[in-house]
Amino acid sequence: MEELAGFTSNPKLGYMLLPSNPFATNFSLQLEGPSTKSLSMLLGTNALGESILSRMLYSMPRDALVAVVVVFSAIIIGAALGIISGWRGGWLENILMRLTDAFLSIPALILVIAISIPLKAGFDAVIISLSIVWWPTYARFFRGQTLKIKNMDYMQAAKINGVKRFSLFFRYLFLNSVDPVIAYAALDFGNVILTYATLAFLGIGLTIPIPELGAMASNGLQYLPADWWYAVFPSITILIIVAGFVLVGDRYQDIINNRIEY
User: Measured between alpha carbons, how far is residue 170 from residues 100, 142, 165, 166 in Å?
Assistant: First the structure.
């Protein structure tokens, strides 16, 4: 995980492709408003004279990486626990589902803060914390799918033909459940990005001087309303990203449910 954080926090990896260096300070351009004089000035500058557009563009891949890692980790953990509990039943199912209920009973943001702070609240800690608290919904989903599928005829035929347990779980249970999971995961990417932005807004998980959308919005609050662009543009970007994932997930759900014909 340290190598992952080091890769994403290396300024040399991305700023050459941006309108300007997102880490270059210019105090003569402090809090300059949006301007069409140059692409780097299109959304204005912050209190250090850094280009807000460049810093926003630099932060987006990092936020996307967090969403991908957390959602896929949650799917793997949730699939393992949900399929095992639905398949085995009995006391094991009760224990796993009560554990799931315990996680679901506490807001994810509070759990992430509670877990990440003892881990020094760094970038790695936030990813680990989000992965730990994000799996319960997927576990419940896979358990429900397992209970529905395990008594179907093709499952009985597979067991009679001696299909190995791992193949049975993966080919017949996991893969038959994956389409609806993808639709939900598309929605969930937006939820993860929003939660991560909220943590950055609170100052948790930051790797200075790497820009984060939530941190940029937080830093810009003290300059409202005069220098409104400092806080408004990062906030609007978060809103657009989350809304985009919601629309994609909803569209994919429509396709899965055969409500749209192509």
Answer: 22, 12, 9, 6
> Quick count: other Cβ atoms within 10 Å of Cβ 107?
11
**Measured distance CA(85)–CA(80) in Å, rounded:** 9
Separation between Cα atoms, residue 124 and residue 213, nearest integer Å: 17
103-128 pLDDT, tens digit per residue, is 888 888 888 888 877 777 678 888 88
Residue 242 CB coordination number (10 Å): 18
d(CA 220, CA 55): 13
DSSP label at residue 174? I
DSSP run (H or E) holding 216: helix 213-220
Pick the closest to residue 86 from 101, 100, 96 (CA basis).
96
pLDDT tens column, 125-138: 888 889 889 999 99
Token look-up 């999971």 returns 181
Strand spans (E) along the chain: none
